[in-house]
Amino acid sequence: MSQTVVQVPFFDLTRQYKEIKTEVLQQVEAVFESMMVTNGPFVEQFEKEFAAYCNVNHCAAVNTGTSALHLAMQTLDVGPGDEVIVPANTFIATPWGATYVGGTPVFVDCKADTWEIDIEAVEKAITPKTKVVVGVHLYGQPFEALKLKALCEKHNLFLVEDAAQGHGGYIGEHKVGSIGHMACFSFYPGKNLGTYGEGGAVVSNNKDYIDRVKRLRNLGSAKRYYHEELGYNMRMGAVQGAVLSVKLKRLDTWNARRQEIANRYLTEIKNDAIQHQHQPENFQSVFHLYVIKTADREGFMSYMEANQVGAAMHYPVPCHLQECYTNLGYKEGDFPESESLAASCVSLPLFPEMTKEEVNRVIEVVNAYQA
Ligand SMILES: *Cc1c(COP(=O)(O)O)cnc(C)c1O
Q1: Is 94 in the pocket of ligand 1 (CB under 6 A)?
Q2: Which of 121, 125, 282, 288 could cross-link with 165 by S-S, CB 3.0 to 4.6 Å?
Q3: What's the CA-to-centroid distance between 162 and ligand 1, angstroms?
Q4: In b/e form, how buried is each residue of 185-217, taking b as 16+ CB within 10 angstroms?
């Protein structure tokens, strides 16, 4: 009886690979023929293209998004005694940037409707030690970066965008990544723009910042065998740069497809047990993830599994309650909205190559859910 049931994977990168395989393999071959396999012309080419894409002047590619956040903090000279304000509901690499360089992450809560960083909470968290605020374009939806930038200017603070989930988003006519002093991107394979390996980037209009990131990623060296400061080996492999150039040309098309699917979820999923992320006007999300809240998450997850529709959680534990941060002394109840999100978030399948039948099936199954 149920032979025709459509199974929906949470995510499937093999479909996209089929679409771009010929071009990817050509580029990979070109890298190997040149044998300039780390940093080099393929990475430089991508850096130029990605800076242009983000409407900024400069880009430094690095090995991961985690490194991008680390090097951004070091470039701003964050160190012991400095506080860096970050949302509690984000991926753990966001606060780690500050921690790596000896700074102290100071967590703040998110808004109840958008689930993005709460600017009023940021204002309350500012102390004389605050040096940087890191906002996160969570799930692909831009946070209120212009408002946060104005607050940072008022208090003489740096604003860094964690844009690891936001490639291509807009606030009005402002592109995500072009608003803060620097923005950090990840090209982890599952991101809207992903490598076939690992990758990340820092972008900025400030050339000094990007020069410093380039030096830090390359053993603290601008000139071979001369090391001006303690650096790291965080270079990007040329294959990743080449793959990213192939994919960047298609990113807007893929993002548009994500938006199309998300708009169907937003308008067609109507179930009192399901809460959507509020999408403010003029904020153009690129829907890295489609996250909903539901009270009985465990029940909903097993219901989805029984119906063979993929689902995931982003993220089940907020940063302030992670074991790695017990030293900071936060406790349950400190950030109610972030904790509520962590306890009830579910990510629905959303990727550009989903078929219409799959999207229909997700909507049908979620609408039929009874709490
Ligand atoms: C993925 C991600 C990172 C880290 O990027 P990696 O490339 O996995 O190191 C940082 N912040 C956010 C919000 C992310 O989603």
Answers
A1: yes
A2: 288
A3: 8
A4: bbbbeebbbbbbebbbbbbbbeeebbebbbbbb
